[in-house]
């Protein structure tokens, strides 16, 4: 908080001078005591009051939830969002010329509907809608606004004119996107398990390219875990509706990492060149991919693990307290991702054996308080997911903000999530999760 003295000269002309002291009260006293002082003032933040001029912005309830109009200007020119989908119609009026990188894109369907083979045709329309949700041009007096306007799109066509495709095309598409410079990958598709997904997602994660995946729309039809959302390392996204409730269609099998708006999303229509409403976890996923692009643009050195941590640490908790199967960590919060100092935690070892002492370096937690440590294991077994949460006790946060705890992980699982909950330095409840491997 900056204190100002308001000084008025003999002609009545006001000037404002910053006053610094050890306390705010002392600053105010000094400001009042300066010669010519008409009193003190406290500085307030201000920003342009313009809302974007995109005519359909009022229809985009999702952007209200995500506070897109409040986001600071972020330079997204270095961000390349891979849309592994039905292709992207690059000629839509709400993409900037060259924004959809047809020069880098590809077609992995091979059905002769993309003769140029560059992914820049979209007979189904799904991929164009998804790409527009992430990065349609904001403030161009056309159509809609988006979270990551200014980011580039890498079109990777893996699904045909009916929106159908194979696990092999998707896995190959993930690898292609990594090899062609994607900074984040969005996959708004879901299906049964295949062995091809895990190595492809692992390849992306190792190259620090987060893979954001729709959790799937089978919430009312079996609700079994779907892939690639269930692959370790994938960021699985469930969908909420305008009431902030997880949609009935949204998969809630326990794979969810985070939630985002997905019902009644107004966006680009490849078939007419105009605009259309669509619903699904497909529409929620690109909101998270766009949030990742914003985070990566403002935190260029961040690793894929840190991106996941930042997403879950800033998510707005919803539903039952703490992480849950409906919302994962909560509703994605791009505003907090780019405007707050995201709490981070590093754990001494992410690969733990039978009995391991972990050290939690959590500057975000308040010294002297206790943090609780729990461990959640999900094990994928074909289409069944087994999830188990174990309390591992508490640890006291030292003056340096470090907590140490001996943990005994569940031996039957290969991967899990370690969750640390505590009170942040500013008094708010903070939850940080980290993926661990047992071996
Ligand atoms: Ca627009
Ligand atoms: Ca919750």
Structure description:
- The protein has 439 residues and is an alpha/beta fold.
- It folds into three domains: 3-42; 57-339, Rossmann fold; 346-438, Immunoglobulin-like, CATH 2.60.40.10.
- The chain contains eight helices and 20 strands.
- A seven-stranded parallel beta sheet has the order 5-6-4-7-8-9-10, with helices on both faces. A five-stranded mixed beta sheet has the order 14-20-19-16-17, with helices on one face. A three-stranded antiparallel beta sheet has the order 2-1-3, with helices on one face.
- Helix 3 (126-135) runs parallel beside helix 6 and helix 4 (167-179) packs parallel to helix 5.
- The protein is globular.
- It starts with a strand and ends with a strand.
- 49% of the residues are buried.
- Residues 343-350 have low confidence and may be disordered.
- Bound molecules: calcium ion (CA) (2 copies).
- The site of one calcium ion (CA) has 9 residues, from loops.
- The site of one calcium ion has 10 residues, from loops.
- Residues 22-32 have a biased composition (Basic and acidic residues).
- One of its GO terms (molecular function) is serine-type endopeptidase activity.
- Residues 22-56 are annotated as: Disordered.
- It holds the Pfam family Peptidase_S8.
- Keywords: Hydrolase, Protease, Serine protease.
């Amino acid at each position: 908080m900056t204190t100002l003295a308001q000084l008025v000269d003999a002609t009545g002309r006001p000037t404002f001078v910053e006053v610094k002291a050890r306390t705010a009260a002392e600053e105010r006293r000094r400001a009042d005591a300066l010669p010519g002082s008409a009193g003190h003032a406290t500085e307030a933040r201000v920003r342009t009051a313009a809302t974007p001029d995109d005519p359909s912005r009022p229809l985009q309830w999702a952007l209200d939830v995500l506070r897109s109009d409040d986001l600071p200007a972020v330079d997204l020119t270095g961000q390349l969002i891979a849309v592994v989908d039905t292709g992207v119609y690059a000629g839509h009026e709400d993409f900037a010329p060259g924004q959809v990188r047809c020069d880098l894109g590809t077609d992995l369907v091979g059905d002769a509907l993309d003769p140029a083979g560059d992914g820049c045709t979209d007979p189904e329309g799904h991929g164009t809608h998804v790409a527009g949700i992430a990065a349609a041009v904001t403030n161009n007096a056309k159509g809609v606004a988006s979270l990551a306007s200014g980011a580039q799109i890498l079109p990777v066509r893996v699904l045909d004119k009916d929106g159908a495709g194979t696990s092999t095309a998707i896995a190959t598409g993930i690898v292609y996107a990594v090899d062609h410079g994607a900074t984040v990958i969005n996959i708004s598709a879901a299906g049964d398990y295949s062995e091809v997904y895990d190595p492809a997602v692992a390849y992306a994660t190792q190259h620090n390219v987060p893979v954001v995946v729709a959790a799937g729309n089978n919430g009312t039809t079996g609700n079994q875990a779907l892939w690639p959302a269930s692959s370790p390392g994938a960021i699985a996204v469930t969908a909420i509706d305008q009431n902030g409730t997880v949609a009935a269609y949204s998969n809630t099998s326990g794979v969810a990492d985070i939630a985002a708006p997905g019902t009644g999303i107004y966006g680009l229509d490849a078939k007419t060149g105009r605009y259309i409403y669509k619903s699904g976890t497909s529409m929620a996923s690109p909101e998270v991919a766009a949030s990742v692009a914003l985070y990566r643009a403002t935190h260029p050195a961040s690793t894929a693990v840190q991106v996941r941590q930042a997403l879950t640490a800033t998510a707005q908790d919803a539903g039952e307290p703490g992480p849950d199967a409906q919302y994962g960590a909560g509703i994605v919060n791009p505003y907090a991702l780019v405007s707050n100092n995201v709490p981070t935690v590093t754990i001494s070892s992410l690969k733990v054996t039978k009995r391991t002492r972990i050290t939690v370096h959590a500057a975000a937690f308040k010294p002297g308080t206790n943090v609780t440590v729990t461990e959640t294991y999900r094990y994928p077994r074909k289409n069944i997911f087994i999830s188990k949460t174990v309390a591992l006790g508490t640890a006291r946060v030292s003056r340096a903000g470090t907590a140490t705890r001996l943990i005994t992980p569940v031996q039957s699982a290969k991967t899990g999530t370690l969750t640390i909950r505590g009170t942040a330095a500013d008094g708010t409840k903070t939850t940080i999760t980290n993926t661990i491997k047992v071996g």
